[in-house]
Amino acid sequence: MTRRPEVVVFDVNETLSDMSRMANRFTDVGAPGHLAPTWFAGVLRDGFALTAAGSTERFATLAQQGLREVLTGRPLDRDLDAAVEHVLGGMFDLDVHPDVPEGVRALAGAGLRLVTLTNGAAEVGDRLLQRAGLREEFERLLSVEQAGVWKPARGAYEYAARECGVEIEAMLLVAVHPWDIDGAARAGMSTAWVNRGGRSYPGSFTPATHEVSTLPQLARLVVEERG
Fold first, then answer.
1. Residue 137 burial (10 A CB sphere; 0-12, 13-18, 19+)
2. Is the pTM of this model over 0.85?
3. Would you write out the chain's pLDDT as a tens digit for each of its 227 residues?
4. Looking at the DSSP assignment, which residues form a beta bridge with residue 194?
């Protein structure tokens, strides 16, 4: 039987934040908007690769390097350094998905402790939640920069448990990324996959404890479980 969660751990990029607006940052500088998800996937790839090799690097460093790679040779309307700076600035100008405020407030109102755990910088999550008026609902904003390994490595989730002072089995990881769900489940967390797009879950990954289409739906499930 799955343990009832005490701490809800939110992934940030794409789970809380709506990153679709990053495409506008690319078109602003004269590059195709479809490069945005390609760039973001490349950043994750490089972070995962370094973690697998026993090394690590900050998200911002890999993001900058990745942007220089995908923008080089494009007919930009400014020099490459300025274009990279403009696109990266978009990470601090994102909004949350429409379902996030209601879901977050419902979970906090049910007495659950809320934290974030991101492969990016904690400052990005802080800016996002401040803009949404949700920062006070979160106890801690955690980043793998302090863990020394990127998610989905076990050490990232164990770091979150240590910081929150709970056993890892008392934590529920909420994410849109199946790789994050799989890593958290293997580390001992219960999990919730937020499937906003109606996708199918990859069969090679550990199934999520819950699959929901919105955060309010997750809040209702968790509250029901807690009795």
1. middle
2. yes
3. 467 899 999 999 999 999 999 999 999 999 999 999 999 999 999 999 999 999 999 999 999 999 999 999 999 999 999 999 999 999 999 999 999 999 999 999 999 999 999 999 999 999 999 999 999 999 999 999 999 999 999 999 999 999 999 999 999 999 999 999 999 999 999 999 999 999 999 999 999 999 999 999 999 999 888 76
4. 212
Cβ neighbors of 204 (< 8 A, separation 6 or more) are none
Q: Residues 58, 168: one domain?
A: no
In a domain, 48, yes or no: yes
Q: How far apart are CA 176 and CA 193, in angstroms?
A: 6
Retrieve residue 225's tokens: 């479980």
CA angle 32, 196, 147 (to 5 degrees): 80
Q: Are residues 149 and 84 in the same domain?
A: no
Which of 90, 115, 85 lies closest to 16, judged by CA? 115
- Phi then psi dihedrals of residue 121, to 5 deg: -85, 140
Among 92, 126, 156, residue at a domain's last position: 92
Residue 1 lies in a domain: no
Q: Please give the Cα distance from 117 to 157 (Å, whole number).
A: 8
CA–CA separation, 217 vs 222, rounded Å? 9
64, containing H or E segment: helix 59-71
